[in-house]
Amino acid sequence: MANNDIITALQKQFQDLLFDEETSKYLIINTLPDNYLDVMKRLREAGFDYLFSMTGMDWGAELGVTNHLENTNTGDMVVVKVKIADRNNPELPTLENIWKTAHLHEREIFDLFGINFNGHSVMKRLLLTDDWQGYPMRKDWADETKMIIR
């Protein structure tokens, strides 16, 4: 499926998506949190059967997630980005019911960025201890007792 076909198919259903092909070898799709789950379901239906990367992001004013998807039959790949304005209570719906690989990715993102994935089967810390305070991958995180400052 060519990028133009993907764009055309998604624009029929989602008018607020932004697309970028200029800065990456992949088609980049930017969506709002309200459409995130539906966009991801639509991409799965379009043959993107492998979520090979899901990364938490801190863009300063917003937190979010960047997903890399592949259609393993055609080799097509897309990137889906979603930004969350609410840094105090960042939430997204889980993708673990669409791609099993999302299970551990979402737990890691929760652990390090504090983004809660609603509907996740085991939404608890993965890498850090249960008594850990804060989210160390956020740009505003500071803990002088655990940081090495040179």
Properties at a glance:
two-stranded parallel sheet; alpha/beta; 150 residues; 22% helix; Beta Polymerase, domain 2
Structural commentary:
The protein is of the alpha/beta class and 150 residues long. The protein has a domain at 3-91: Beta Polymerase, domain 2 (2-Layer Sandwich), CATH 3.30.460.80. 22% of the residues lie in helices and 26% in strands. The protein has three helices and seven strands. It has a five-stranded mixed beta sheet. β6 (91-93), α3 (102-113) and β7 (116-118) form a beta-alpha-beta unit. It is elongated. The model has no long low-confidence stretch (mean pLDDT 93).
Give the secondary structure arrangement, pairings included:
Layout: H1 3-13, E1 18-20, E2 27-31, H2 36-45, E3 50-58, E4 63-70, E5 77-84, E6 91-93, H3 102-113, E7 116-118
Parallel strand pairs: 2-5, 6-7
Antiparallel strand pairs: 1-2, 3-4, 4-5
- C-alpha geometry: elongated
Give a count of the beta strands, DSSP E runs of length 2 or more: 7
Euclidean distance between termini CA atoms: 50 Å
> Can you identify the CATH superfamily of one domain?
NADH:ubiquinone oxidoreductase Nqo5 subunit
Average residue pLDDT: 93
**Uncertain parts:** none
CATH architecture of one domain: 2-Layer Sandwich
As a whole number of angstroms, the C-alpha radius of gyration is 16 Å
Name of the top-level CATH class of one domain: Alpha Beta
Strand content: 25-35%
Helical percentage: 10-25%
Largest sheet: 5 strands, mixed
Reported by name, the CATH topology of one domain is: Beta Polymerase, domain 2
What's the order of the H and E elements? HEEHEEEEHE
How many H/I helical runs?
3
| Secondary structure category | alpha/beta
Order of neighbouring strands in the sheet with most strands: 1-2-5-4-3
